[in-house]
Amino acid sequence: MNKLILAPILLIIAGILLVISIPEDTSPPESKPIYNMGFTFYDVEKIQTSLEKQNISMTTPTAITDHTIPQYCTYFDGQSIQNNVEYCTTTSIMDSDGEPIGNINMGGTTDGPIMALAIIDSSPFLDSKLTEIDIVFQVLIETLVCDCWAEKQPGGFESVSEWLNTAKAKYGDSIKFDSKQNTLKSKIDGLNGMNLILEITSKDESYLWTLIVLK
Fold first, then answer.
1. Helices H, strands E: what count in the chain?
2. What is the pTM (predicted TM-score) of this model?
3. Is residue 2 part of a domain?
4. What is residue 77's predicted lDDT score, i.e. its pLDDT?
5. Residue 49 and residue 56: Cα distance in Å, rounded?
6. Which residues make Cβ contacts (< 8 Å) with residue 41, sequence separation at least 6?
7. Cis bond leading into 100, ω under 30°?
């Protein structure tokens, strides 16, 4: 059974916001359904293969269609509007010791996903699972968005690792001065026509790192 880690996007807490934007790519024709663009539910198999090469395992996707969908696939868009999907799949991801560290979920309709998210529980420190976070988030971006980060350097970051380390440093500095600052959000818009949202949230003596990919 997949271990559910509730996404920090569902928490109503005070936060700080770091917004990083780049010009959007050319938009697809409006007449083409968004679920027909970009990644599909089958890309989970590619993610699983890539993670296994780096000693991170992933379970077979489980479909969710009932009232629990918001626990797995609800997200907030760029206008902070909560969005629900009608179909969602979830998987559990484990580290090299076989311990569950988080989930990779996809949501949309049965025709295809419009969003994907990876969430990892980093305990007990902010950087306790930074190696795994780096691997999972890079694989997610390379598989679902593009293998073009080094070329385009969105937000001025030379690599995904630099983006994560910058967010970690800003979040760490913020909570030193204000312990009530529980959330950091960093956005990159328009990378290969998609939007990325990175969130770090503290919860119950642990830190939740979330990467959301939106079509």
1. 5, 11
2. 0.84
3. no
4. 67
5. 9
6. 61, 89, 106, 112, 113
7. no
Note the pLDDT tens digit of each residue in 90-116. 999 999 999 999 999 999 999 999 999
The residue segments making up the domain with residue 108 are: 8-214
Residue 177 phi, psi (nearest 5)? -95, -20
The number of distinct structural domains making up the chain is 1
Among 181, 214, 169, 168, which Cα is nearest to 195's? 214
Residue 1 lies in a domain: no
Return d(Cα 79, Cα 117) in angstroms, integer: 18
* 3 found inside a domain: no
Contact between residue 104 and residue 116 where contact means Cβ atoms under 8 Å apart? yes
Confirm if 150 and 121 have CB atoms less than 8 A apart.
no
In angstroms, rounded to a whole number, what is the distance separating the alpha carbons of residues 96 and 103? 15
> Is position 75 within any domain?
yes
Mean pLDDT of the chain: 85
